[in-house]
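Figure-free illustration: sequence to structure, shown twice.
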Amino acid sequence: MPMPPVQRTIDAVWRAESPRLVAGLMRLVRDVDLAEEFAQDALVAALERWPRDGVPDNPGAWLMTTAKHRALDRLRRDRMSADKHAQLAHELDDAHELAHAREQAALDDEIGDDLLRLIFVACHPSLSLQARVALTLRLLGGLTTDEIARAFLVPEATIAQRIVRAKRTLADGKAAYEVPRRAELDERMPAVLGVVYLVFNEGYGATAGDDLLRPALCNEALRLGRLLVGLLPQHAEAHGLLALMELQASRMAARTSSSGEPVLLADQDRTQWDRRAIERGLAALEHAQIRSPRRGTYTLQAAIAACHARADSVEGTDWARIVALYGELAEAAPSPVVALNHAVAVSMLLGPAAALPLVEALQDDPAMKRYHLLPAVRGDLLQKLGHHDEAREAFTLAAGMTRNERERALLLSRAGQGARR
């Protein structure tokens, strides 16, 4: 049964607004679980009222106002200490005082954006790097636990445990919600960059659902990336990440057909690529390389994306340079996903027979057991080599592993092509 229009609207609004909602509430109540609970209360209220009263003109503001009121009611009902109650009630009740408090806070901290500020806060040094990224993706990236697990290539239960432990650690830490000063920003940057990148990736290729792309997530990640560059202009990897996202985002319009089906890189109409985004990406890449002679992981990935952006066709792409860059990336940050991408580049440079052993060597890696692109790439190589039965099996396996309906349809279509030969 199709979802009612109002329900679809609420779902879309919640996807877009929940990170900001949690960020704003965390700044007020300074408690992760309370912020999430009040945000959920606002969602429940929207589900009850909007079908009856209509969607408000500014749904995000409506949700925030409702969440604040629910927070105040809860704080009163739970009889919090008089001092804390008075402080929070004052902030929640008086919009003018709240605005003034935010202005004062902006003078004291260097970040200035609620969402970015809370990403830095949640990336506290008391947490492991993996826990910081998992928590901030859950709270502020708007990703589900399952989506985060797939991004990390680990079981969902592992991510759930990381998030619970991270919340507990922050709750027990007296300085958990202090905004870091400039001297502390560099220490937290790797996790912050990781969060922004994974948010962008979820927008660029949705883990699940009916659509391949979630442009709002890409746009939000780009916005945060630009803020990071402005905040720390000498940080080479901030420029590298921004370059990577700009260059990847330049292809968005060509990645799907008019009806939403995925379009593979080889079949994309490159006249649809956004030239201004490419120019911004190449400029950011140049800034990154100027600031550090030793290229980091985001700068290396941006350099790979730049090879695609500069080429007028797949055949005209500098695959030798891409293979070399993936080799450099594998040394800097070895991972099975990098190895798989390297194998794809090898196939374009030397042919599918040279790449197939590299791909098959990854099949026993535990991290790749749930990664649908491994059998998808293997199927592509087998198909090019004329092994159509094996290719069909690989594409069918990949289709069964993905939770994105558009990707599943494409993979099943490719499996069917092999069966018809």
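We now fold a second protein in the same way, so the two outputs can be compared directly.
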Amino acid sequence: MRDQSQPNKQSHLLGVGLDNEDGHKRITRADKFSIVGGSQETHEKMTETVMKTFEDMKKAGKQLETIEHKHLAELIEKNRPSD
């Protein structure tokens, strides 16, 4: 298990959508995250959620390499669009 005080320089967030039925291959890549798969709607929602989460992390002075897992999960849930 990684010591939380030691930043992992290889941190990357990965989102995977599993509801694709139209045969399109959707991939959105950024420096610190990748979103793959999903229907168009799911892919867009996941991308929006992650982008808002990274904006909130920046406002809070946090980075993916140093944020606590619980805090990251809370931010993702907060930014997830309601259905």
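Summary for the second example: DSSP finds two helices and three strands in the chain.
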